[in-house]
């Protein structure tokens, strides 16, 4: 017994040491995460079932907040606008960033410049983007509508000042802003595809389209999956772009869930109700992500 | 391994230092609080102290009269003031005295028991103090107003002269205003000026504030918004006729009202009284062009109210954080009694603020300020008006104003008719706010 204990000790001590070492590396980040994210998120699940208004006591109201949500037309408008944004923003950004990546994945003069240029919007301040695009979209004096009038469009859209066109305008800017970032991810994915595959395909007489369909797309699948997940989450919680470009307007035409949560919580001080809407947003995001993972797993098998 | 131990020790040392630092700070802060007599310091929340001198002015003037009490201004961010204040109050770190920036949030603070009952202070004050009754809830007063802004009609005398038009005479209704704006635009165009007749900023206030204040029996909390319809129709007409920059142009180009009026892009502009001080400062600094201007009473619904023009504006007041130490509460109350007095009003008037306390002496002080237009109509507009609050104090106000803000953007952008938008707002008010 004694000998075995003696023999095991150094090993277990090493294990303990390694564990502590690992913890000490994680600790600084985890502390920040725990204090600023984890605890508030856990608190959210309690607050969502109360009528807390920032001051005083939070009374337990059970499912009342969720019942209210079902009959809340503004919530439904925000939900459908969020879905509207997501449904168009994801495929557009995915397609355009892939196209850009393919375009910039060849050897040509100035490729570094174009790659950087495509990435610029992503690192530009969102407020600056909103101001400039709003000017471009200006219904009477904006360059976009002046161009449209010039090429013969007699009734150009009102863009951010029209309830029907504000969402397309915001989607356009959102796509423009983010495609550079995802292009970079696609580029990284493209570089990992072994050139031999293309050579072999060429020898077999495969056309460019066939090479794209049968080599590029399958080899990029992990990248595409990652980007789709990121895009989905990002689209559902879109907030800053909308806030600075249209502030949800005109009317409620670009009101999205995150903004609705912000308004209810921090403008109207209904933190309980805002928390329950956050939970719904959280559930939507997580269930779609889970579905995506399952689909990805199945097609991998 | 050695390295990790050293790092660990370093972290532990840093932590203990930080903790020691915290505790010594706390000691230093609590020390004067326990001293029973002698000078007292109370803290006062304000925003953008460098460009908003009113807080320091009040603090300095009060300290001069009461050398034992020091009022120390604590800076907050102007745009996020209420969010930051809510967080600080909830955390127990808010200053002793804090500003009620608008009446919408006053309800939240009062209802959340974050304001001390100041009825005893209010009893010592002049009952005519403008805005005092806005802070009264169930017979008790919870804040003391120090400034009371009101909306006027600003006009550019030089542009009126260039167009050969008569200045506003103080008898205008909104119809007169619209007619003049249209004529002005045409006359200015004929005179070769690119300026427009008027400018209406993108906020909901310049339409809805006037409509609520001037329409008899209009009630924000009734959920019946039909009183807004005539005001919207006349503004839409002005926008369609080209007498003012369209809402779309103003929002997409982020037009500022200071630039529109200050760089002579518009001959008239309905705006709050705070702009007087801004315009004077900007003309001095060169941010605005130099031209002659004046203020006229806001246009009225009909001519029956021109003798005592009806306008709107929320008071700005100070309240006391109930978490204040007992020995400081008396000092804080003394300060609040001061801010509602004529002395404070004089100090504020001298820096171009419209004080809540009105008297002839205050008016004289205000018009003694360099750059303030001194004609009779400007004096009349400053001293004579019936200012109604834009935000009645109620738990429903913020929710309803948000709904009406949506209605405003959808109407002014031309995305919906006035009728449809107001009907939608009424149904939303009923189903989302008034039933809560």
Helix content of chain A: over 70%
List the uncertain runs of chain B.
Answer: 1-36
Q: What is the number of strand segments of chain A? A: 0
| CATH architectural category of the largest domain in chain B | 3-Layer(aba) Sandwich
The interface involving the most residues is between: A-B, 38 and 39 residues
What is the fourth-level CATH superfamily of chain A? MetI-like
Structural class of chain B: alpha/beta
The CATH C-level name of the largest domain in chain B is: Alpha Beta
Q: Determine Rg of chain B (CA atoms, Å).
A: 25 Å
What name does CATH use for the topology of the largest domain in chain B? D-Maltodextrin-Binding Protein, domain 2
Major sheet attributes of chain B: 4 strands, mixed
CATH homologous superfamily grouping of the largest domain in chain B: Periplasmic binding protein-like II
Q: What is the total number of structural domains of chain B?
A: 2
Give me the number of helical elements of chain A.
Answer: 13
CATH topology of chain A: MetI-like fold
Summarize the structure.
Chain A: One of its GO terms (biological process) is transmembrane transport. Chain A has one domain: MetI-like (MetI-like fold).
Describe this structure in words.
The complex is a heterodimer of chains A (301) and B (436). With 301 residues, chain A is mainly alpha-helical. Chain A is globular. Chain A contains 13 helices and no strands. In chain A, helix 3 (73-103) crosses helix 7 (166-191), helix 10 packs antiparallel against helix 13 and helix 12 packs antiparallel against helix 13. Chain A has one domain: Orthogonal Bundle (MetI-like fold). The longest helix of chain A is centred in the first third of the chain and has 46 residues, at 2-47. Chain A starts with a helix and ends with a helix. Chain B is of the alpha/beta class and 436 residues long. Chain B folds into 2 domains: 36-149 and 314-358, Periplasmic binding protein-like II (D-Maltodextrin-Binding Protein, domain 2); 151-311 and 382-433, D-Maltodextrin-Binding Protein, domain 2. Chain B contains 18 helices and 13 strands. In chain B, strand 4 and strand 5 (140-141) form a beta hairpin. In chain B, helix 6 crosses helix 7. Chain B is globular. Mean pLDDT of chain B is 87; it is low at 1-36. Chains A and B meet through helix 1, helix 5 and helix 12 of A and helix 1, helix 3, helix 4, helix 10 and helix 17 of B. Chain B: InterPro entries: Bact_solute-bd_prot1, SBP. Chain B: Keywords: Signal. Chain B: Residues 1-28 form the signal peptide.
């Amino acid at each position: 017994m004694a000998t075995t204990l003696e023999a095991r000790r150094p090993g277990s001590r090493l294990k303990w040491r390694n564990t502590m070492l690992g913890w000490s590396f994680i600790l600084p980040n985890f502390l920040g995460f725990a204090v600023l994210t984890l605890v508030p998120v856990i608190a959210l699940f309690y607050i969502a079932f109360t009528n807390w208004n920032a001051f005083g006591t939070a009374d337990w109201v059970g499912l009342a907040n969720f019942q209210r949500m079902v009959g809340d037309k503004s919530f439904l408008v925000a939900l459908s606008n969020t879905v509207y944004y997501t449904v168009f923003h994801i495929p557009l950004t995915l397609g355009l960033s892939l196209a850009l990546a393919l375009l910039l994945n060849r050897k040509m003069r100035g490729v570094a410049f174009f790659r950087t240029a495509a990435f610029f919007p992503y690192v530009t301040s969102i407020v600056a983007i909103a101001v400039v695009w709003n000017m471009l979209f200006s219904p009477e004096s904006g360059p976009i509508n002046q161009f449209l009038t010039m090429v013969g469009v007699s009734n150009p859209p009102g863009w951010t000042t029209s309830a029907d066109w504000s969402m397309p305008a915001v989607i356009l800017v959102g796509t423009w802003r983010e495609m550079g970032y995802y292009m970079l991810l696609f580029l990284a994915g493209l570089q990992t595809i072994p050139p031999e595959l293309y050579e072999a395909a060429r020898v077999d007489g495969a056309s460019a389209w066939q090479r794209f369909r049968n080599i590029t797309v399958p080899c990029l699948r992990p990248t595409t999956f990652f980007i789709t997940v990121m895009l989905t989450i990002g689209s559902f919680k879109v907030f800053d772009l909308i806030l600075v470009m249209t502030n949800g307007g005109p009317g409620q035409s670009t009101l999205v869930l995150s903004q609705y949560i912000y308004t209810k919580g921090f403008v109207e001080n209904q933190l309980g109700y805002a928390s329950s809407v956050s939970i719904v947003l959280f559930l939507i995001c997580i269930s779609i992500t889970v579905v995506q993972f399952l689909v990805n797993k199945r097609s991998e098998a | 391994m050695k390295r990790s131990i050293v790092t660990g020790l370093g972290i532990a040392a840093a932590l203990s230092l930080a903790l020691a630092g915290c505790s010594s700070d706390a000691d230093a802060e609590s020390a004067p609080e326990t001293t029973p007599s002698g000078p007292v310091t109370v803290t006062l929340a304000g925003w953008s102290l460098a460009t908003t001198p009113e807080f320091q002015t009040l603090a300095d003037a009060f300290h001069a009269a009461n050398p034992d009490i020091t009022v120390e201004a604590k800076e907050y961010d102007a745009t996020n003031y209420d969010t930051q204040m809510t967080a600080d109050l909830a955390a127990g770190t808010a200053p002793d005295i804090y500003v009620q920036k608008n009446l919408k949030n006053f309800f939240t603070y009062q209802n959340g028991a974050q304001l001390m009952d100041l009825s005893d202070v209010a009893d010592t004050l002049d009952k005519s103090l403008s805005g005092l009754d806005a802070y009264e809830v169930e017979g008790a007063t919870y804040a003391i107003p120090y400034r009371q802004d009101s909306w006027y009609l600003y006009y550019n005398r030089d542009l009126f002269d260039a167009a050969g038009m008569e200045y506003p005479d103080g008898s205008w209704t909104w119809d007169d205003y619209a007619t003049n704006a249209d004529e002005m635009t045409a006359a200015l165009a004929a005179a070769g000026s690119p300026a427009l007749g008027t400018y209406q900023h993108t906020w909901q206030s310049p339409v809805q504030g006037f409509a609520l204040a001037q329409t008899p029996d209009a009630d924000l909390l009734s959920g019946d918004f039909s009183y807004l319809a005539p005001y919207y129709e006349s503004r839409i007409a002005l926008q369609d006729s080209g007498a003012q920059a369209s809402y779309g142009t103003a929002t997409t180009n982020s037009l500022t009202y200071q630039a529109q009026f200050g760089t002579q892009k518009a001959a008239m502009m309905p705006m709050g009284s705070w702009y007087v001080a801004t315009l004077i400062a900007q003309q001095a600094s060169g941010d605005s062009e130099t031209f002659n201007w004046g203020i006229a009473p806001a246009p009225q619904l009909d001519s029956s109210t021109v003798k005592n023009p009806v306008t709107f504006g929320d008071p700005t007041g100070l309240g006391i954080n109930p978490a204040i130490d007992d020995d400081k509460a008396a000092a804080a109350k003394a300060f609040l009694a001061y801010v509602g007095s004529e002395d404070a009003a004089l100090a504020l008037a001298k820096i171009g603020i419209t004080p809540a306390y009105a008297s002839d002496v205050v008016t004289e002080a205000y018009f003694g300020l360099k750059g303030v237009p001194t004609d009779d109509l400007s004096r009349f507009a400053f001293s004579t008006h019936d200012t109604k609050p834009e935000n009645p104090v109620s738990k429903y106000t913020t929710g309803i104003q948000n709904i009406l803000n949506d209605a405003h953007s959808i109407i002014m952008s031309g995305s919906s008719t006035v009728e449809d938008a107001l009907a939608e707002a009424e149904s939303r008010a009923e189903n989302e706010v008034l039933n809560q």
